[in-house]
């Protein structure tokens, strides 16, 4: 059984305001929930249509019907279970290693894909400007496929962060140096920009290295890459010589 | 004015069946429509809420109201104009150069992103298995941001195509050779697999080279990359030494 109050609380968590207030977020589907159960995230409560998971304390599980799941799910096609987890405190970002910084990335799918990429390339810290989409947004959580558990995402004033760091700061610009022609270091901050406007003038002014992904197609065209595919290419270049 | 019949024809084009029958597809929004107008695609008819485009024959334009646009649009938020274009005949794929082949890629966003990547990396031909999502699907057209005009997408029996080619065939597999350790050729077919199942056993049997993108994160995890981000990394590797 899910009470009316529980439905209200859970659907409320689709909004950032209530996630901040309750310090809770949710994930759906056996694969994503299993990945988060295996991680350091603390389970708050699991709503499930069947006994898919072993070893969970009885007071943290509620068996529900598919109809009840529909009432709490954020998915068009609900997927067997929904779990609430506690939002942990952000960890401090060290001033060493490779760090990705996002300047107003607004699309949940893009943020989710970038979190997966960080996980793949062994990048433990992702710094987001305050205007980025929230990493605990249900669409981001689903897109990360569990990688959210392995990447520390922190939200901060990006300009202040970039002004203070001692690390080199890399930004991608049309007039930057060809990423294929120089060996990339294993210490640095890589800024990726907003979907429509790219990197802001404020962040651009704080970039110490301007890089570019060469284009091989028709050079008359001004078309750009999507921010997540650009991040894939750049992270691959930074890691390929390790 | 848009007649009831026109509304029926245009909304019908959201279905592959009617696109095949009428040999028409549509695109929306000033940016995408402008890119397609600048290309080799033949305009069939333009429905627009304002005179955004110059030099179009008067009998090919209908000025409509935002309310009328809503009735023909496939977007949640209609974007000022909608244009119908003729679907051209598929061009033959040469047995030379770099070619991308998709094995049952089903998600319109992924296909659109891969078409954009082909355009960026100067890959003119994209071979799709018959189970791939249709490249003239409205969601694909919007995701390509105009790149559809510059990449020849052909649908064919992939197994037959791979069996006949004289080009080397590259497939990405966990046990493949590290893409960062060998120089990639400028002739070959790169197969990318289905979102859930990867490359099919039939296509795998026809791959002449097994490659892999090394993972740098926690190696206990079995997580994979999204097919579009994997394509970005692989295409970048094939082009980086040109």
UniProtKB/TrEMBL annotation, chains A, B:
Q: Which Pfam families does the UniProt record give? A: MRM3-like_sub_bind, SpoU_methylase
Q: Which InterPro entries does this one have?
A: Alpha/beta_knot_MTases (IPR029028), MRM3-like_sub_bind (IPR053888), Ribosomal_eL30-like_sf (IPR029064), rRNA_Methyltransferase (IPR051259), SpoU_MeTrfase (IPR001537), SpoU_subst-bd (IPR013123), tRNA_m1G_MTases_N (IPR029026)
Q: Does the keyword Transferase apply?
A: yes
Which Gene Ontology cellular component annotation is one that this UniProt entry carries?
A: cytoplasm
Signal sequence segment: none
What keywords would UniProt list here?
Methyltransferase, Transferase
Q: Which family does it belong to?
A: Belongs to the class IV-like SAM-binding methyltransferase superfamily. RNA methyltransferase TrmH family.
Instruction: Please state every residue range assigned to the domain named RNA 2-O ribose methyltransferase substrate binding.
Output: 26-91
This chain belongs to which protein, by name?
A: RNA methyltransferase
One GO-annotated biological process of the protein: methylation
Is Cytoplasm found in the keyword set? no
A molecular function (GO) held by this record is: RNA methyltransferase activity
The lineage's top-level taxon is Bacteria
Q: Which Gene3D superfamilies match?
A: 3.30.1330.30, 3.40.1280.10
């Amino acid at each position: 059984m899910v009470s009316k109050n529980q439905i209200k609380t859970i659907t409320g968590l689709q909004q950032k305001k209530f996630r901040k207030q309750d310090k809770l977020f949710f994930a759906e589907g056996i694969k994503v929930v299993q990945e988060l159960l295996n991680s350091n995230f603390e389970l708050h409560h699991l709503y499930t249509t069947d006994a898919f998971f072993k070893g969970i304390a009885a007071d943290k599980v509620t068996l529900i019907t598919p109809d009840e799941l529909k009432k709490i799910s954020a998915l068009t096609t609900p997927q067997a279970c929904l779990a609430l987890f506690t939002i942990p405190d952000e960890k401090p970002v060290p001033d060493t290693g490779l760090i990705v910084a996002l300047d107003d990335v607004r699309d949940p799918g893009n943020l989710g894909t970038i979190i997966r990429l960080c996980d793949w390339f062994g990048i433990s810290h992702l710094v987001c400007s305050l205007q980025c989409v929230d990493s605990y947004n249900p669409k981001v959580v689903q897109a990360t496929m569990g990688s959210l558990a392995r990447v520390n995402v922190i939200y901060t004033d990006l300009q202040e962060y970039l002004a203070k760091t001692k690390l080199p700061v890399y930004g991608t610009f049309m007039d930057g140096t060809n990423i294929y022609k120089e060996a990339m270091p294993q210490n640095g901050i890589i800024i990726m920009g907003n979907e429509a406007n790219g990197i802001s003038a404020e962040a651009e002014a704080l970039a110490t290295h301007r890089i570019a992904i060469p284009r091989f197609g028709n050079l008359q065209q001004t078309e750009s890459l999507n921010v997540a595919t650009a991040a894939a290419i750049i992270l691959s270049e930074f890691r390929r010589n390790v």
